[in-house]
Specification:
The protein is an alpha+beta fold and 634 residues long. The protein contains 19 helices and 13 strands.
Length: 634
């Protein structure tokens, strides 16, 4: 295999599901360090390790701490205070956004399953009441309990099995739709219906048959045979305990619906806020591409400098391009910068662990102007900032506040440990959003490329119309270096790609919130319908004694609103706790979730009360159609 000017022998092929912290990596090569990465002050490499069999992560942590202590004694000038590095299991770092997505899907599925089960339980209770006379007659005619159980089991089986099959088919279609909606953002995650899913569906199906299929038989076993035969099926009513159980089911349905809806609204509001946030610079009509000059073509630093000079000159001559420059990382998109500790004092006066930490970016002239970063004071990076001139830096507002609170940073000096030198501050710019927009800004320093040389850079190109200028920019870069694999993309496209998972979560919560509300409405409707049906005689007597239609309607509506209010308060309380959990985990999916939002809680309250009112209209009006004379004659 030929890469750059070297031939490599392929020694292994990774599976398609292999994703190691970077989805775009297609080839792994042996690590070759350079002078900067070998410097003791450099801490830019990550280390992965495989624990030996029987060795716990706690024991490995102890050994790492002992090793760090030895290095601290041997090299106090660079390792003083650097001990106790925390070992983190790799599976907790891999694919965090997708794990958050699946966590949300689990919450959705569990909520819908609970609402469905409570709804089925409520309907089965009604079925049990309506069939109590039938069960009593069968028992009186000699039917054994086992015969009745087999009949109930068969009836439930005929309902549950087709439902499970339909559910599996819908799940297969939904899984395919989900993969398509995520635009291959799942990395190595494979969404399929495997044996575990089928086993879960089978267990839920069997459980629902056992729990709800035998409800009529269980209910009939608790009745007195003679009383049931005298009452008859049409006059049988809900007992006090059974009525309370049915009401509890409705409260659970409403509470779960509230939880799903509030969670979805919190996520939706967070995603919408992030979609319209200000990153700190103008992203419209910007084209980016990273450049890594081939070593076999550009062996020394001067050749690399000449290459970038030709590239920028060629791109600036493209029609529609207004500015172009290069940075080691474009903030907000490629990363926050290279990590460094820094101080304004003597290194011996504070250990490196106690020193503040932040990020630095290596930037060519006109980079701040190209990105249109907002300068608060001072100047940007100039072409006169060379390696043989005074080291300078442009700092962000956070760095200025922490290092020189209440003062102007212009003219102040700061020591950046990663670069091993002092830098004079010549400018200050407004904070930009971090790559994870939910995290607070950190100190950031922009250093002239001539004073912090890096081989790999990111070209930032400002245009009047990105799509129109794309072909010309690509052609200009190809003419400069036909061997470099330029991957041009617009900032808008890069941002849309990062927002995709959050939008999918929003869409899913919207759909399933509607399903949960619909099921809750069915539960409310069925309960009030049962109540009206079982209290016909009472309603007729009330009407005969002079009760108005309004009082009859309010009797049932008030009961439903009390149950809905209990479910609303319960679900809202739980939602606040879930919101606190979500705030800590949703940041990995670029969703700025808030634990308690008054607007969200208010919206959920209005929706639940509106659904309750709609569910009560028809059954309540049915109550007013009772004929008192017919009831009294009966």
């Amino acid at each position: 295999m030929q890469l750059d000017d070297a031939a490599y022998t392929i020694i292994g092929v990774a599976s398609a599901e292999t994703v190691l912290l970077a989805e775009s990596v297609e080839v792994w090569l042996p690590l070759v360090t350079d002078a900067m990465s070998e410097a003791r002050l450099s801490r830019s490499l990550g280390v992965w390790g495989l624990l030996k069999p029987g060795v716990s992560i706690q024991r490995a942590q102890q050994e790492i701490e002992a090793l760090s202590a030895n290095l601290e004694r041997e090299h106090p000038e660079t390792n003083q205070g650097w001990k106790g590095n925390i070992l983190t299991p790799l599976d907790s770092l891999l694919d965090r956004p997708n794990k958050v997505l699946f966590f949300c899907l689990y919450v959705i599925a569990a909520g819908i399953l609970l609402v469905t089960c409570t709804n089925v339980g409520n309907l089965m209770l009604a079925r049990a009441v309506s069939r109590q006379s039938e069960i009593a007659r069968r028992a009186a005619l000699g039917a054994s309990r086992s015969q009745l159980a087999r009949e109930m089991f068969t009836e439930s089986l005929l309902l549950a099995v087709p439902a499970a099959v339909i559910g599996l088919v819908v799940a297969m279609l939904a899984a395919r739709a989900l993969v398509g909606a995520l635009n291959n953002n799942l990395g190595g995650t494979n969404i399929t219906l495997d044996g575990k899913v089928l086993a879960f569906v089978l267990s839920v199906t069997v459980t629902s048959i056992l729990l709800f299929g035998f409800a009529p038989l269980w209910y009939g076993a608790r009745l007195q045979l003679a009383n049931s035969l005298r009452e008859g099926g049409s006059r049988a009513g809900l007992g006090t305990r059974t009525r309370r159980l049915a009401q509890m089911f409705v409260v659970i349905e409403v509470a779960v619906s509230v939880i799903v809806m509030i969670t979805g609204l919190i996520i939706t509001k967070g995603v919408r806020a992030i979609e319209h946030l200000d990153p700190g610079f103008q992203t419209a009509n910007m084209i980016m591409t990273d450049v890594s000059p081939a070593v076999w073509m550009y062996a020394d630093d001067q050749a690399v400098r000449n290459l970038y000079g030709r590239m920028l000159e060629s791109v600036r001559n493209v029609s529609g391009v207004s500015a172009a420059s290069a940075m080691s990382m474009v903030p907000f998109f490629y990363g926050d910068g290279a990590a460094t500790t820094f101080s304004t004092g003597d290194l011996n006066q504070s250990t490196r662990r106690e020193r503040m930490s932040g990020f630095y970016l290596s930037a060519m002239p006109e980079s701040i102007e190209t990105l249109r970063l907002n300068l608060v004071r001072g100047r940007a990076i100039l072409s006169s900032d060379r390696d043989n001139t005074t080291n300078v830096a442009v700092v962000n507002e956070t760095a200025a506040r922490r290092l020189w609170p209440g003062e102007s940073p212009i003219g102040k000096r700061v020591q950046l440990d990663a670069l091993g030198g002092w830098f004079s501050v010549v400018g200050e710019y407004r904070d930009v959003k971090r790559m994870n927009v939910t995290l607070p800004p950190q100190p950031q320093f922009i250093i002239p490329w001539a004073q912090s040389y890096q081989r790999t850079m990111v070209l930032a190109i400002r245009t009047g119309n990105s799509n129109a200028a794309m072909a010309g920019v690509r052609r200009a870069l190809r003419e400069t270096d036909p061997f470099e694999p330029f991957a041009l993309l617009t900032m808008e496209a890069a941002w849309e790609h990062r927002l995709n998972n959050g939008r999918v979560i929003t869409w899913l919560f919207g759909v399933f919130s509607a399903i949960a509300l619909f099921l809750a409405a069915i539960g409310l409707f069925s309960l009030i319908w049962q109540s009206v049906s079982q209290r016909f005689k009472e309603i007729g007597i009330r009407l005969a004694l002079g009760a108005s239609n309004r009082s009859i309607v309010s009797l049932f509506v008030r009961q439903m609103f009390v149950l809905a209010s209990i479910g609303l308060v319960s679900g809202g309380t739980v939602s606040v706790g879930i919101g606190v959990l979500m705030k800590s985990v949703m940041k990995y999916a670029l969703v700025d979730a808030k634990a308690a939002d008054p607007a969200v809680l208010g919206t959920a309250t209005l929706v639940i009360l509106g659904v309750t009112a709609l569910a009560c209209i028809w059954p309540a009006r049915r109550a007013t159609s009772v004929d008192p004379a017919a009831v009294l004659r009966d």
